[in-house]
Design a protein that fits this description.
The chain is an alpha+beta fold and about 180 residues long. About 25% of the residues lie in helices and about 30% in strands. The protein starts with a strand and ends with a strand.
Length: about 180
């Protein structure tokens, strides 16, 4: 695919700028043969938070997709999932995600645990390159988007990816029930 342009962001194929990707992200993109299917763009890390990115680059909230790590315990076993939710919605953590993980209570992973288990920078966590076996819960509307902005594993860049590419990632499950409009 060529033409990674969304709002004020213009990216290049990930193959051209591997230096802008966290190691697990680059490894996964390479293994999945997706280095040409997603774009990457360098940004100022000071504006990597969703609202700042939206303002700086003239993006719509549904085009900015956050990857949040959610966990819970069942019979002494920790169960973790990644939830991909656009900024225009809020993940149903203690409803949909809790039931999907089959835990009594689900909550966002603490900062240190999220960084350690993902191998990525906080504020840049992406679904691409997370540990194998974690479910990737994807908002169904995001799966249908032609192009969205997600993290790259580091705060100094963003990935531009078609929703269909995200929906085809290993472990991905698209659902209209994952999130509700804010």
């Amino acid at each position: 695919m060529t033409g990674f342009v969304l709002g004020g962001l213009t990216g290049v194929a990930a193959r051209e700028r591997p230096d802008l990707l966290a190691a697990p992200t680059l490894e996964a993109l390479t293994a999945l043969g997706l280095l040409e299917s997603v774009g990457v763009v360098e940004i100022d890390p000071a504006i990597s938070e969703t609202a700042a990115t939206q303002d700086a680059y003239g993006l719509e909230a549904h085009q900015l997709v956050n990857c949040v790590l959610v966990g819970g315990r069942r019979d002494g076993e920790e169960r973790v999932a990644a939830a991909l939710v656009p900024a225009s919605k809020r993940a149903d953590v203690n409803g949909f995600v809790r039931r999907r993980l089959d835990v009594r209570k689900a909550s966002f992973l603490p900062h240190d645990q999220a960084v350690e288990t993902s191998g990525m920078e906080y504020g840049g966590i992406t679904p691409i390159g997370l540990p194998a076996g974690w479910p990737l819960l994807l908002d169904a509307d995001t799966a249908a988007e032609p192009l969205v902005v997600i993290g790259s594993g580091v705060r100094r860049s963003k990935i531009l990816a078609p929703g269909a590419v995200l929906a085809a990632l290993p472990g991905a499950e698209a659902s209209p029930d994952l999130a509700r409009a804010v």
